[in-house]
Amino acid sequence: MLTKETITDALKSVKYPGYSRDIVSFGIVKNIFISGDHVTVSVQLTSASPEVSQQLKREAELALQNLPEVKTVRVDVDAVAAPQAGAAGPWSGQNKVPGIHRVIAVASGKGGVGKSTVSVNLACALQKLGAKVGLLDCDIYGPSIPLMMGVTGKPGINENEKMVPLESFGVKLMSMGFLVEGDAPVIWRGPMIMKTIQQFIHSVDWGDLDFLLVDLPPGTGDAQLSLCQTVPLDGGVIVTTPQEASLGVVRKGVAMFEKVNVPILGIVENMSYFTTPNGERVEIFGHGGGRAEAERKGVSFLGEIPLYTEIRIGGDQGSPVAATAPETAPGKAFIKVAQALRDKLS
Ligand SMILES: Nc1ncnc2c1ncn2[C@@H]1O[C@H](COP(=O)(O)OP(=O)(O)OP(=O)(O)O)[C@@H](O)[C@H]1O
Ligand SMILES: [Mg+2]
After folding, report:
1. Which ligand has the nearest atom to the CA of 219?
2. Contact residues for 193 (Cβ-Cβ < 8 A; gap 6+)
3. What is the mean pLDDT of residues 4-21?
4. pLDDT at 107
5. Ligand 1 atom having least distance to the Cα of 144
6. 145 contacts: CB under 8 Å, gap ≥ 6
7. Global model pTM greater than 0.85
8. pLDDT in tens, 32-79
């Protein structure tokens, strides 16, 4: 006896073209109709090319024909228009979180380039510009958002059984740091992390947000890639330092977002230069590499953030300069990048 479960299980072996995720988990299998040994399946896609639709149809039909009880198969692939300009990827319009307008990942090819610092200050700067902003810390092993935003505490649960994000400087926050005790190491493995991140997106009462920024763990490996597929991203920002050694990692970041069809919103060059107390400009890591690499890759350059002691202190004390000193040079640098990002998305 053929059942919908058998069909669904067989369809789980079909990957969305170009992705490591299967079409069932993407939620695009809409209807399964069984009549004796004949099966009809309808799949609904948004923003897919005709080649993708064709390939999906072929592979799904093949997977079902391999079932011994199935005689004839028809898979209908419906491509419906994406509900929103800028939305991309197979999940658009499906897993999109109600109330959240734009989900933006902040990534870097390697650690220590100031990705969390940029995430935190960009979130605060967008808030200063009048946007409703959330910040999700996906760095499970080294969450630094709580410290940088000066918050501790545990998220509450509301009457709808959703987690209530903490809030600091008008930005809604969720981080693994709120859920584990002190310095207890997190020893979770991949699938549990994915599940938690999914809950951070879908089981948190984010309310209405113009932007949800997502601080990804450093690097562009499998973990980051699966995160990009787990979170319904609208775009990605890449943070780099100016020196050549760091720019290879920009390429990796670009490649990562391209692999998962996430539009690259732009590159931010952090630690661009240092100004001494007597006004002399020192380019510790060189300068301009971020802009040059952006041009080479044909992506936008969102701006540069110089090295400022105030930025480091703000991070350590939980008082981000973009929130506490937006009128100073370090604060303005972040506001400028936030403006560029906002313009890019409008
Ligand atoms: N523009 C800047 N000026 C001064 N200090 C900075 C600047 N950007 C980052 N820092 C400092 O550099 C250190 C590393 O920054 P941060 O933690 O943001 O990097 P990260 O890329 O998120 O690191 P990780 O890979 O560990 O997540 C922090 O102490 C931060 O305060
Ligand atoms: Mg970090």
Report:
1. 1
2. 140, 223
3. 87
4. 92
5. 17
6. 116, 119, 120, 135, 137, 139, 173, 175, 177, 215
7. no
8. 999 999 999 999 876 567 888 889 999 999 999 999 999 999 999 887
- Give helix 222-230 / helix 244-259 axis angle, nearest 10°: 40
Neighbours of 210 (CB within 10 A): 17
Q: What is the pLDDT of residue 94?
A: 40
Closest residue (by CA) to atom 6 of ligand 1? 312
Amino acid at 65: Q
Q: Quick one: which of 236, 100, 112 has its CA closest to 174?
A: 100
The per-residue pLDDT for 329 is 94
Q: Separation of 40 CA from ligand 2 center, angstroms?
A: 47
Distance, in Å, from the CA atom of 189 to the CA atom of 226, rounded to the nearest integer, reads 13
| Of 121, 269, 312, 332, best ligand 1 pocket probe by most atoms within 8 Å of the beta carbon | 312
CA distance linking residue 215 with residue 217, whole number of Å = 7
Ligand 1 nearest atom to the CA of residue 310, by list position:
4
Phi (first) and psi of residue 32, to 5 degrees: -125, 125
Task: Name which residue leads in pLDDT, 204 or 346.
Answer: 204
Q: Does the pLDDT at position 319 exceed 80?
A: yes
Q: Above 70 in pLDDT, residue 93?
A: no
- Cα–Cα distance between 41 and 13 in angstroms, integer? 15
Those residues whose C-beta lies under 8 Å from the C-beta of residue 148, and which sit 6 or more positions away, are: 116, 117, 120, 314, 315, 318, 320
**Closest to 314 measured CA to CA, from 330, 336, 327:** 330
Residue 92: pLDDT above 60?
A: no
Query: How far is 342 from 140, CA to CA, in rounded Å?
Result: 27
Q: Which amino acid is at 51?
A: E
- pLDDT given for residue 61 in this prediction: 95
